[in-house]
């Protein structure tokens, strides 16, 4: 029976993680684990984490993992956070005009656009990092500087928060960045509960 005036769960942030052929598995799945654990076990509202692929079909990741998608780029709902991972597939995406146009349009309508590892090279190709501090995998710091001389490339940082754009270093650094995003969205205590819940304890034996 429905009672008038009874509200359902409060809508939480909608987070989209982009999957594409050649994406580095942990770049995408690390943040997915953090944000999905937060949504399921910590957040007071009802956040959603969605897998987006260019055409809505399954993708084959860099090391062979196949991942299905919830949405294509074109039919994905409005997002509060968009995360663009890295991996071998970013080489093609950085030169894909259709993808870069989509990324610019999405970034303009999304409060936080984030990248993991060489995903920052695609953000740079879209012009989203000009005049900002940013980082990437240590092996690609020079490539990031070459991609756009207007970027203030940060060395030796796990992630760099520039407000509407957040970039992280390579692979496992995406977990640190995702915990930071939880802290931004829901506070430091929530981020610590997620960290403990997934037993992520960097630097401990």
Subunit organisation of the chains: single chain
Q: Give me the side-by-side strand order of the main sheet.
A: 5-2-1-6-7-11-10
In terms of structural class, how would the helical and strand content be classed? Answer: alpha/beta
Name the beta content range: 15-25%
How much helicity do the residues have?
A: 25-40%
- Treating each run of at least 4 consecutive H or I residues as one helix, how many helices? 7
Reported for the largest beta sheet, the result is: 7 strands, mixed
* Overall tally of domains: 1
Q: Specify the CATH homologous superfamily.
A: Class I glutamine amidotransferase (GATase) domain
CATH fold category name: Rossmann fold
Which shape, going by the Cα principal axes? globular
Intertermini distance:
53 Å
| Highest-level CATH class | Alpha Beta
CATH A-level architecture = 3-Layer(aba) Sandwich
What is the strand tally? Answer: 11
**SSE pattern:** EHEEEEEHHEHEHEEEHH
Question: What features would you describe in this structure?
Answer:
By secondary structure, this protein is an alpha/beta fold. It starts with 10 loop residues before the first strand and ends in an 8-residue tail after the last helix. The chain is built from seven helices and eleven strands. It has a seven-stranded mixed sheet, with helices on both faces. A two-stranded antiparallel ribbon has the order 3-4. It has one domain (12-197): Rossmann fold, CATH 3.40.50.880.
